[in-house]
Amino acid sequence: MALAFITGGGTGLGAEMARCAQAQGWDVAILDLCRDAARPILDELPDVRFFEGDVAREDTVVSALDGLGAVPDLLVNNAGILKFGSLLETSFDEFARILNVNLTGAVNVSRLVAARMIARGHGSIVNITSTAGIATSPGVNAYAGAKRGLAAMTEMMAQEWGPLGVRVNSVAPGMIQGGMSRSIYADRAVADRRASAVPSRRLGAEADIANAVLWLASEEASYINGHELVVDGGLTKATMSMIPRD
Predict the structure, then answer these.
(1) What is the rounded CA–CA span in Å between residue 63 and residue 221?
(2) Phi, psi (degrees; rounded to nearest 5) at 148
(3) 143 labelled catalytic
């Protein structure tokens, strides 16, 4: 059975990825900061293995990988944090913390897992980026830079590790009714207003992202490498449709 290793898999998008991966026959392990927060998904999916650790710390990641007893066939770098606020009002420490989790942490885990995948001869890595790094907006501060940086690192990893048997791609979620955005869309009026701006006329679901990730990891996508798959209902391509013609 193929093994999927999902960071930030205890809640939100990561938990949905664990749920969908297991339904498709994957053996699933997750790495997250807090077992208590992950309790609902662990109770729901008792076969999922849990490792407590910080993606930005090499020692906790190595400990988890050693504990797996096997090399992951799929790594999903999903762990992330977001804090809204203007750049001028964001402290340096907070800015650095957001970068550390969303960018440095993903690169840290990727390097450690890729080394094992390369020694084994194959593997797939999917990084979770964001449309906030493609068409950013005021108030997302370090998150936008981290996600754009992770997209660039995805391309570089694909070039370096592709010849060694490891494919690296990314998925950029748009406006998703779940994950870190769940509280935003709890207000139905906000959710409806935002959905009306999406060409598909709906917000995304957590399963939309999970399914995209698992497809990229599948043999059906075996010739896709270094690609950022935007899953946003067409939103980032809709700029001109929002500008009046007369």
Answers:
(1) 31
(2) -65, -40
(3) yes
Average pLDDT per consecutive 10 residues, the chain (246 residues; last block may be shorter): 97 97 98 96 97 97 97 98 91 95 98 98 98 89 95 98 98 89 80 88 95 98 98 88 70
What is the predicted pLDDT for the residue at 168? Answer: 98
Q: What is the pTM of this model?
A: 0.94
- Given its phi and psi angles, is residue 80 left (phi above 0), alpha (psi -120 to 50 degrees) or beta? beta
What distances in angstroms separate CA 114 from CA 5, 163, 199, 212, one per listed residue?
Answer: 12, 12, 37, 21
Alpha helices per DSSP H over the chain: 12-23, 35-44, 58-68, 92-99, 105-120, 141-161, 188-195, 206-217
Residue type, 71: V
Domains (range + CATH), the chain:
3-175+205-231 (3.40.50.720)
Q: Which of these is catalytic: 26, 51, 95, 143? A: 143
- 128-146 burial string, b = 16+ CB within 10 Å, else e? bbbbbbbebeeebbbbbbb
From CA 150, how far away is CA 115, in angstroms rounded?
A: 18
